[in-house]
Write the structure tokens for this entry.
Amino acid sequence: MARLSNILLSTLALVGAHASSSVLDLVPDNFDTVIIKSGKPALVEFFAPWCGHCKSLAPVYEELAQNFGFASDRLVIGKVDADEHKELGRKFGVQGFPTLKWFDGKSETPEAYDRGRDLESLSGFITEKTGIKPKAKKAAPSAVEIFNDQTFKEHIGGDKDILVAFTAPWCGHCKSLAPIWETVAEDFAAEAHVVIAKVDAEAENSKSTAQDQGVKSYPTIKYFPRGSTTPESYEGGRSEKDILEFVNEKAGTHRMAGGGLNAKAGIIPSLDAIVGKMSAGGSLALISEEATKTAGALKDKYAEYYVKVFEKLGKRQGYAQKELARLEGLIRKKGLAPAKLDDLVSRSNILRTFTSQAEGKEEL
């Protein structure tokens, strides 16, 4: 069990630390000092971790805080987990999530924010109240592909799985979705057969496509499997996690938030089942022979890796544990090319299957 615990801890460490937020976390101990007594105006979001609308707002609110970060000596952009700190929510009349309130730095009575939850609306409100204009960082090239009537026809039905958002420039929900859509596209950037795309449903060069697809409201999201022009409507949540899970399920990918691979990457169920026979005390040579035959019928490069591990175990019993430790050490190093990192994670996942079976055999 100790060895298994160490493996789990190592896995968690490899996932990586969360980047620090530009949004100030507010709790009962610092709220009055930072918001009421500081003399600085503040925009405060009261949220709950389980709230879908809060999750959708999170990347927009983070970008808002980053764009006004240069003025932190004159302005506060903060958030309160009002599910955990219910007393703060009750104190300021919070009845739903997310609730945004503006504190002018002079009064304890805030003003309710009742405009759009897109970056443009939020930024305009703060500028109107303070005269401070945001300073947005220079945008990196977008990972989202923009389709028009011509390019839509060229891509749909081809060899790629495509998720398309049909949007309109004036649509507030589309504006809220935009940074999440960009993040999801970045998460799948290393997947050559997955495309995250967008269609401006009201642009002259793409409105015909929107009409053909029966788009009547915005945003409308449709998934087109590779080789098919028949879409599946996406009706799930609009958080990064929700969209990632949907695409992973449909496209057979294993991406996590941030673009890394999850614990299922590289795993082949039929070969995993064969590895599982090791814990029952079967002959390694016979199990290895079965794995070789099964792998031969599969068109998957990691099927060959299963066979390689079996061959190594036949010569050296502790191979899987030592090789896993070596790969985890490489993963912890910075500067690896994305493709190399993906390969190391996939092989580590496979090795972890072997090590868990070895531990199970020892316990028996």
